[in-house]
Design goal:
elongated, seven-stranded mixed sheet
Length: 126
């Protein structure tokens, strides 16, 4: 039996997943649960890359001016993640999420996308 559930309100499938040492719900925007199951190996690789990329994201937030502090290691310890979703379209798997802190050094959370093996900050969450 699958742990994948359909959320009618979000119009997405959902699966509990541990990322950055926290259990959270990952949403999947795709046509069917079968597409998720058929791509599970690649999805797991992407989510593992996200899970191990906290320091990379922290450094990017500082380098691109989203975080006013200067210590990526310190930022990585307090960085939070929310709104994680996976978009599966034509064999392309993109993982998206919002990240930020509540320490006063970020004006808001930033939206980040993981294409291939590269993170890209696409702007502030509005």
């Amino acid at each position: 039996m699958s742990n994948i559930k359909y959320n009618e309100h979000e119009e997405a499938y959902e699966l509990p997943y541990k990322l950055w040492d926290e259990m959270m719900t990952v949403r999947f925007y795709t046509e069917s649960e079968d597409i998720i199951i058929n791509n599970l190996k690649n999805i797991a690789k992407k989510l593992a890359l996200l899970d191990s990329g906290k320091s990379t994201v922290a450094a990017m937030l500082i380098d691109e001016g989203y975080y006013e502090g200067s210590a990526a290691d310190s930022l990585a310890k307090i960085l939070k993640m929310e709104n994680v979703y996976v978009d599966i379209d034509d064999d392309d798997i993109v993982v998206c999420f919002d990240t930020g802190t509540d320490d006063g050094f970020m004006k808001n959370f930033a939206h980040v996308e993981l294409f291939g093996e590269l993170f890209e900050i696409t702007g502030w969450v509005t």
